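Thread: Newbie trying to understand structure tokens

Hi all, I'm a second-year student working on a class project, and my supervisor (Dr. K.) asked me to get a predicted structure for one chain before our next meeting. I've only ever worked with sequences, so writing a 3D structure as a token string is new to me. If someone could post the tokens and maybe explain what I'm looking at, I'd be very grateful. Here's the chain:
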Amino acid sequence: MKKQVIDTVFDGKQLFYVNLGQGSDQQLRLWIDQTFVTEKDGSFFVNFPITNCNVIQLENEKDLIVKPGELNLFYFYVLAGYEGESTIDSIETDQPYQVFKFIDDDVLNVTVSMGVLVLTRSDKVKIRWHRDGHLEEDQLTEGVTLLYANGRKETIPNNEVLKYF
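---
Reply by user tm_fold:
Sure, no problem. This is what the structure looks like when written as tokens:
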């Protein structure tokens, strides 16, 4: 997943960040070390998951600094349907992890969509989620998604199906 990054210059240093969440108290600003930023046609981007990194959470808990390190930072977002909400129900990895949640409150569409950043040594994260509201015909109301450090993503509507195979 590619996200556009904002660049700014402060005290002669070029800094890069992306805002996650809007319209609520659960917003994050992810400050990203330039080694994780790519440029294309004058715009800057970061690709998730970010591998070989570490995250420093500042005292205000809203500013996160992504620096080179030994962990993986996964991004996952569930868009709610019109007049609906989305929720991250559970997160599983085979290593300890840290979660940073963010929320988009869209007052015009009366929706609340949730997203998470998961920092872990693991190369795979399993996320169980659900959403409601007015959805498109092909949109799932719930599911389990696997995110891999190589960028691959798999989703199944019901994880219970796997018990029979």
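A couple of things are worth pointing out once you decode it. The chain has one domain: 2-164. The chain has a mean pLDDT of 93. Feel free to ask follow-ups in this thread.
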